[in-house]
């Protein structure tokens, strides 16, 4: 199978950290989920330097032999909005909405709308690998999630936001 892409749209669920000085410790789950705000809205104004989690409007389902990547649309990038920081891979067998790691590197606020085209996923087939071949990893990475996935470290994964 050759790579291909599917457009994705921004959903209406947004989560962000309140500004403050408290340290976020990735090995302390309480600090990761403290001082968080969230909203379901038709739009969100992403302020300069602000980081948010959002989700796609689309729910995807990948078969066991297909992995995907996510890339932002250039029209959004040219406004200074990045779509994902490092989590660009979507595992084979994943089912659910995709959590987007968005940031505004522009010096001006940018308004993003639920339903607007925000990026695309690229799919690529894998040969001779199935979910059962990756069984030792089961329980470490979730294969499905509805809603935003919060940051996590180690082997304990909290439920979705």
Describe this structure in words.
This protein is mainly beta and 161 residues long. The protein has a single domain (4-136), classed as Deoxyuridine triphosphatase (dUTPase) (Deoxyuridine 5'-Triphosphate Nucleotidohydrolase, Chain A). 6% of the residues lie in helices and 43% in strands. It has two helices and eleven strands. It has helices spanning 29-33, 74-77, and strands at 4-17, 36-40, 43-46, 51-61, 66-72, 81-82, 89-90, 95-104, 110-113, 117-125, 144-145. Strands 1, 2, 4, 5, 6, 7, 8, 10 and 11 form a nine-stranded mixed beta sheet that branches. A two-stranded antiparallel sheet has the order 3-9. The protein starts with a strand and ends in a 16-residue tail after the last strand.
Assembly type of the shown chains? Answer: single chain
The CATH fourth-level homologous superfamily: Deoxyuridine triphosphatase (dUTPase)
The residue-averaged pLDDT reads 82
List how many beta strands DSSP finds. 11
Considering DSSP H and I runs of 4 or more, what fraction of the residues is helical? under 10%
The biggest beta sheet, please? 9 strands, mixed
| Uncertain spans | 133-141
Distance between the termini: 35 Å
> Given this structure, which CATH class is correct?
Mainly Beta
Please name the CATH topology.
Answer: Deoxyuridine 5'-Triphosphate Nucleotidohydrolase, Chain A
Which class do the helix and strand fractions yield? mainly beta
**Annotated CATH architecture:** Distorted Sandwich
Approximately what portion of the residues adopt beta-strand conformation?
Answer: 35-45%
N-to-C order of helices and strands? EHEEEEHEEEEEE
If you compute it from the alpha carbons, what radius of gyration comes out, rounded to the nearest whole angstrom? 16 Å
Overall body shape: globular
